[in-house]
Write a structure and sequence with these properties.
This protein has about 130 residues and is α+β, with helices and mostly antiparallel strands. The chain has a domain at about 50-130: Alpha-Beta Plaits, CATH 3.30.70.3270. The protein has 5 helices and 6 strands. The strands form 2 sheets. Strands 4-1-6 form a 3-stranded mixed beta sheet. Strand 2 and strand 3 form a beta hairpin. The chain is elongated. The mean pLDDT is about 90. The structure holds iron/sulfur cluster (2 copies). One iron/sulfur cluster binds near residues 93, 95 and 97.
Length: about 130
Amino acid sequence: MGWISKNWLMCGVMKGLAVTIKHFFQIGDRPVVTVQYPYERMEIADAFRGLHAVSEDRCIGCGICEMNCPNGSIRIVRHNKWYPQVNIGQCMFCGLCVDTCPMDAMVMTKKYELATRSKEMMIYNPDRLLFKE
Ligand code: SF4
Ligand code: SF4
């Protein structure tokens, strides 16, 4: 009771409630910053680092991406020629593999919905990474 008598106006609570009411009834010039995912999607920035992709024509299988990956997430594997395989369960999407590729063969796409039910599905072999230019 002592607390209520000292704070009978409950200014803090009222201020918070006012903010809630403003948002609820969309009072004032407040931009909406949330999107109704998955029905709506945000625009992805060009510099976004999503799932990797490897150009089939440019990649020479040199292994420099594998050497420079700080997490050991890349292995060069045989797939007709030698190409990188990426374990996105380990990858931290730093982009070093892309930056150090001498052939500009490795890129990062805007794909970000990568959840799976198994660890094995997180290993992207060349079949799932290669693209033709
Ligand atoms: S992606 Fe680039 S760095 Fe990696 S093996 Fe191919 S050419 Fe070499
Ligand atoms: S983005 Fe970074 S962590 Fe992921 S595979 Fe490339 S170098 Fe390794």
